[in-house]
Amino acid sequence: MNQTRDEPAIENRFLLALPESCLKRLTSQMEFVEVRPREVLIRAGSTIDNLYFFNRGFASLVKAMRDGRMVEIGAVGPTSGVGLLSLLGLERAVWETVAQGSGTAFRISRAAMLAEMEKSHALAELVKKRAGLFLGELAQAAACNRLHSLEQRCCRWLLMAHDCAGTDTFALTHEFLALMLGVQRSGLSIVAGSLQRGGLIRYTRGRVTIVDRAGLENEACECYGTWRGQLDHLLGKS
């Protein structure tokens, strides 16, 4: 991970929802960093010392089984913070947090965030509400993985990645997306091929381009709309 010299304007919606005075104190203690593809931000079982607030990009929350199989159970992008639950007492990570593609984020120590929470009632309340919403997202994802088709889930994932990436084209391999969705690569390739033939996406050499976002939204399950609606209610529309 590399620290950048010039810090751009904050685009993270969680940070932007804070009062100006609180945000000013936090930004004085933050580092603006570049996040590399597949970079592990927090390892499972480790103490959570730093939080990350993405400006662009996102990270997957990955749960690994003893036999080596892994699956994505959630994701964190510019609408929340990586490690946010540590502010409510979860000091050790229960899953791996892995960056998807290149991105940028603001990094701050957990100690600094806890100190600011003691000063700012607004920050403390927002952390509690966003953590509650995050638990709802995990429940929604569990239901989605059990009840919705692979094509619907794939469309939902692509839409969320598109929101977080901030660009129509981003790095993504069939192998990795299959891993995140917990399915065989062959099944995922069939679905991705169908989406490409339908003109919804374009896939070339490990990069995907969102061609028809409205079409993806029509093909996705209800979970994407539920997720966006709940975020907009808490943080305001983007």
Structural summary, described in words:
By secondary structure, the chain is of the alpha+beta class. The protein has 2 domains: 2-144, Jelly Rolls, CATH 2.60.120; 149-220, Orthogonal Bundle (Arc Repressor Mutant, subunit A). The chain has 9 helices and 9 strands. It has helices spanning 13-16, 20-27, 110-119, 121-147, 150-165, 174-181, 185-197, 213-219, 222-235; strands at residues 2-3, 31-35, 40-42, 50-64, 70-76, 96-109, 169-171, 201-204, 207-210. Strands 1, 2, 3, 4, 5 and 6 form a 6-stranded antiparallel β-sheet that branches. A 3-stranded antiparallel β-sheet has the order 7-9-8. Helix 3 (110-119) packs across helix 4 and helix 5 (150-165) runs antiparallel to helix 8 (213-219). The protein is globular and about 55 Å long. The two termini are 28 Å apart. The mean pLDDT is 90.
- What is the 3D form? globular
For CATH, the homologous superfamily of the largest domain is named as Jelly Rolls
How many domains, as an integer? 2
If helices are DSSP runs of H or I spanning 4 or more residues, what is the number of helices? Answer: 9
- Which parts are unreliable, with pLDDT below 50 for 5 consecutive residues or more? none
**Largest sheet features:** 6 strands, antiparallel
Order of helices and strands: EHHEEEEEHHHEHHEEHH
Class based on secondary structure composition and strand pairing: alpha+beta
Distance between the termini: 28 Å
Number of strands: 9
CATH architecture of the largest domain: Sandwich
CATH class of the largest domain: Mainly Beta
How many whole angstroms does the radius of gyration measure? Answer: 18 Å
Q: What is the CATH T-level topology of the largest domain?
A: Jelly Rolls
Into which percent range does the helicity of residues fall?
40-55%
Q: What is the arithmetic mean of pLDDT?
A: 90
* Quaternary structure of the protein: single chain
**Percent of residues in beta strands?**
15-25%
